[in-house]
Amino acid sequence: MQVDVMTLDAAKSGDVDLRDDIFGLEPRRDILHRYVVWQMNNRQAGTHKAKERGEVSGTTKKFVRQKGSGGARHGNRKAPQFVGGGKAHGPRVRSHATNLPKKVRRLALKHALSAKLSASELIVIDEASVSEAKTKVLAEKFGKLGAKSALIIDAKVDEGFAKAARNLGGIDVLPVIGANVYDILNHDKLILTRAAVDGLYARLDGTHTNEEVAS
């Protein structure tokens, strides 16, 4: 399907043909949900830790007499019911990562791109670069595009453009290799450069040498 290509000043500079097998799918919520859960699981550090009774200090001497105290026959101050005792079944350092087949990850990315196009939330621009790396200048350009919350994807991120955009709330810039479902769905607009479209084709066709990392 044909889509207009805009400049950062919201002027039309041509058009681009987007492939139906990547941008024309009927979005499936179940596939998108599987990807986002996988990505969020992999983001967790898993470094939470509570000390158990074998890791705290406390006497193991019987501190009350066997009978006549009216209480239980305690013999260890490190038991969970005592103040300063170990935590029973507390969190341990572990990995929360789960597996998701590469084919499903690629399919989910296609459905995310299709969802943005079907919702009229996809903008294709000729290039993501500015003559002067100033946040104010870039904010004005995004205002013309109607993009207050946007993810910009380029084949190779321009350093000046990225510096100008990093102080804008709701605006994120990623290279093609970093494109992921969560960030695409988490922004109101998705802005792709011409080079990014070609890069996504290469990545989703399996000709790109690298694969995305859940982040």
Automatic annotation (TrEMBL):
GO terms for molecular function: rRNA binding; structural constituent of ribosome. It comes from the Bacteria. GO terms for cellular component: ribonucleoprotein complex; ribosome. Pfam families: Ribosomal_L4. GO terms for biological process: translation. Residues 65-95 are annotated as: Disordered. InterPro entries: Ribosomal_uL4, Ribosomal_uL4-like, Ribosomal_uL4_dom_sf. Keywords: Ribonucleoprotein, Ribosomal protein, RNA-binding, rRNA-binding. SUPFAM superfamilies: Ribosomal protein L4. Forms part of the polypeptide exit tunnel. One of the primary rRNA binding proteins, this protein initially binds near the 5'-end of the 23S rRNA. It is important during the early stages of 50S assembly. It makes multiple contacts with different domains of the 23S rRNA in the assembled 50S subunit and ribosome. NCBIfam families: rplD_bact. Belongs to the universal ribosomal protein uL4 family. Part of the 50S ribosomal subunit. This is Large ribosomal subunit protein uL4. It comes from Parvularcula marina.
